[in-house]
Amino acid sequence: MADTEAAAKTAAAAGAQTHAPPRGGVRLRGVTKTYGSGETALRALDGVDLDIEPGELVVVLGPSGSGKTTLLNVIGGIEPADTGEISVAGTELTGRPPKDLVAFRRERVGFVFQFFNLVPTLTARENIEAMMELTGRGDRSGAPGLLGAVGLSDRMDHFPAQLSGGQQQRVSLARALATDPDLLLADEPTGALDVATGTSVLALLQETNRQGRGVLMVTHNASVAALAHLVVTMRDGRVETVRRNAAPADADTVSW
Ligand SMILES: Nc1ncnc2c1ncn2[C@@H]1O[C@H](COP(=O)(O)OP(=O)(O)OP(=O)(O)O)[C@@H](O)[C@H]1O
User: Fold this and answer.
1) Which range of residues forms the domain containing residue 192?
2) Where does the record place the region Disordered (predicted)?
3) Sign of CA dihedral 106, 140, 133, 117
């Protein structure tokens, strides 16, 4: 069976499961972030207010340089904001020292990146086990189940270089879910994938959201907005528009 077909079937099967209570809400007030100083200072976030309800799937759109990745990074505690208030999954990030942000990242959020960021010398299964060891969360015996849920039971002992782009992204999704995060943050998760492979990854992201987890996805691809409960557009470091979708589409109906 083709990988994309397998992934779609896995997602459909998972869709039949009981849904957990929603989690992973986000609240930002007056958030700013400036890179550099003096004449070269660049305000990447310029007073961002944003409310995301627990369990929402959010798509963030906007031109290159508008602050999308910076927004994702401050919500995920990858870097601190300069000013403003940030609360994620009930945890207040404002003014927290770096060690608290590390703990927050380990316990509350998972990350998926455009170019997968898998450890090349570790197999799919070992990439997941390494995340569990690093964070002290999850049980190593759960790694095969996580890979099975993304349709990769038969690729567990393959190294990243032996996997297609779509398969690598599914490993990276399984790795992100290994710590059972409240909120999954995905930066251009389909940016390096073709349409069929990209939609199979979107189906998995949608499924993880339907199980109650918050998902925030940054993309250049406006078609992906159809999936979202909430569509946020950024411009010049500010939230330009926030739009709610009355009836989010299924991932397999999206194309680009
Ligand atoms: N580490 C950094 N040092 C200096 N400037 C940065 C840094 N990270 C981002 N910037 C600048 O901040 C602004 C916002 O960047 P950001 O990556 O958040 O935008 P983006 O909307 O995600 O862009 P893209 O769609 O191209 O990925 C840009 O002008 C960028 O050049």
Assistant:
1) 3-248
2) 1-27
3) negative
Question: Rounded CA gap, 223 and 66, in Å?
Answer: 19
Nearest CA to ligand 1 atom 31: 65
Which of 37, 45, 64, 217 for a ligand 1 pocket mutation test, highest count of atoms within 8 Å of Cβ? 64
Ramachandran region of residue 212, left (φ > 0), alpha (ψ -120 to 50) or beta?
A: left
For the chain, give the longest Cα–Cα distance.
Answer: 57
* Structural domains of the chain, count: 1
C-alpha 78 – ligand 1 centre gap (Å): 14
| Residue 64 maps to a domain | yes
Do strands 91-92 and 109-112 pair parallel, antiparallel, or not at all (unpaired)? unpaired
Atom of ligand 1 nearest to the CA of 71: 18
Q: Is the pLDDT of residue 8 over 50?
A: no
pTM > 0.95: no
Q: What is the Cα–Cα distance from 24 to 55, expressed in whole angstroms?
A: 6
In a domain, 228, yes or no: yes
Query: Domain holding 221: CATH number?
Result: 3.40.50.300
- Residue that is written with structure tokens 């380990």 in the block: 106
Any residues with CB less than 8 A from the CB of 38 and at least 6 apart, and which? none
Q: Give the residues surrounding ligand 1 with Cβ less than 6 Å away.
A: 35-36, 42, 44, 62, 64-70
Taking only the tens place, the pLDDT of each residue in 170-217 is 999 999 999 999 999 999 999 999 999 999 999 999 999 999 999 999
